[in-house]
Amino acid sequence: MNFQLLLCFIMSTIAPIVGIQHTVLTSKCNRQIPQVAKGSRMLLIGDSLAQGMSPHFNKSARSRGYLPFIKCLQGSRIDYWSPRLEAIINDIRPTLIVVSLGTNDAGMTTPESQRPHIKNIKKIIDRYGAKIIWLLPQPLPSRFVGQNDIKKIINEELQNNVYDTKIRLEKTEDKIHLTSKGYETWMNATWEHMASKGIIVN
After folding, report:
1. Measured between alpha carbons, how far is 28 from 140 in angstroms, rounded to an integer?
2. What is the pLDDT of residue 32?
3. What is the arithmetic mean of pLDDT over 13-32?
4. What's the longest Cα–Cα distance across the chain?
């Protein structure tokens, strides 16, 4: 048992005796002991937006004692990664997987066709026992006719494992990709979200 675990155990035992508020104590201990421990492997998969985020993902993970791995492909959709993910996981064996997909799928007139692939990705990750955070696409130009539908489907299938960044991010002229500052802001917000959920160390 490490020191933090031992301390939390002792404090939870004596809390009723000395009158320490249990909710405060539990919150503090949960923040100290993340679900994904330092030294664990993290995997980022996705499209060109994930590529843009990847240097900041790498920096954030390494600076906090994690081991980052990145698998991204420009223009890729959810159905590209679905049949390939299991082999990637077996090779890298990550404890946390961050998925940044859905932007290219948002251009489809039938995004519902991606539901089986979303289900398969979740099934693979659940079977392996890794944590997952799926980053929803940023708001896109109106020609991306399926953007609302693909977000809805991902939300329905992933539920509490979805993160929709509700902040304004600096974009390039194409109104799709982000500037370097935009990607950094997106990664920082994502990291803080995961830390607030007790998944990782901030």
Report:
1. 39
2. 63
3. 47
4. 63
- pLDDT higher than 90, residue 27: no
Note the pLDDT tens digit of each residue in 110-150: 999 999 999 999 999 999 999 999 999 999 999 999 999 99
Q: Pull the structure tokens for residue 193.
A: 């979200």
Q: Could you identify the residue written with the tokens 């251009």?
A: 107
- Looking up tokens 């104590």, which residue turns up? 25
Q: CATH homologous superfamily for 36-196?
A: SGNH hydrolase (3.40.50.1110)
Task: Report the pLDDT averaged over residues 153-159.
Answer: 97
Contacts of range 136-142, beta carbons closer than 8 Å, 24 or more positions apart: 136/102, 136/162, 136/163, 136/164, 136/165, 137/49, 137/102, 137/103, 137/106, 138/49, 138/103, 138/165, 138/169, 138/171, 138/176, 138/178, 138/186, 140/103, 140/106, 140/175, 140/176, 141/175, 141/176
Mean pLDDT, residues 81-99 taken together: 98
- Give the domain ranges of the chain: 1-33, 36-196
